[in-house]
Amino acid sequence: MPLYKSNPRSYSQVHEFSTHCRWAVFSGVGCSLQSIAEREPSLLNRYAANAQELVVRALSFVGVNYRRGGESPETGFDCSGLVRHVFRESLGLMLPRTSRDISRVGETIQRDELQPGDLVFFNTLRRGFSHVGIYLGEHRFVHAPASGGEVRVEDMRQNYWVKRFNGARRIAAAEHHQSAN
Fold this sequence. Notes:
By secondary structure, this protein is α+β, with helices and mostly antiparallel strands. The protein has helices at 11-27, 33-39, 43-59, 79-91, 99-102, 159-164, 171-180; strands spanning 71-72, 76-77, 107-109, 119-122, 131-137, 140-143, 152-155, 165-170.
């Protein structure tokens, strides 16, 4: 079973549908999920189509050394450098440099709404949103942990991560909603 399986009835697509339909009802234009997709290929659709690529690309860096400020597989990654690199290479999205700044981008989502490709944030340095990783599904995420470590996969159900979880963001949905306004 693939790590990501697109669900056409996901919250984001339903929200997109309802937003467009409210406009369609007001303007007297017909509305359907199919007509929305035909009319305007959204960043959300692009994200859903490439979510598996995003996850696979992130996993391809498992074993790359941690390096503070690092943003490439050749020199190593820190947590935000890994996230920035994967989103830039997979989706063409340029994210801010720090995990705290990245935490202000996108749509806030609840833990039980997580989908592969979402970002998960943790308080690992006694300050909120000091660490970020990419959610893979099945309670796992990939991240660049700390000095002396390397990119690896962790289980969010481990006590260490449960205590430090700060929240999650869905980047593409918010980018789509900003571009639709």
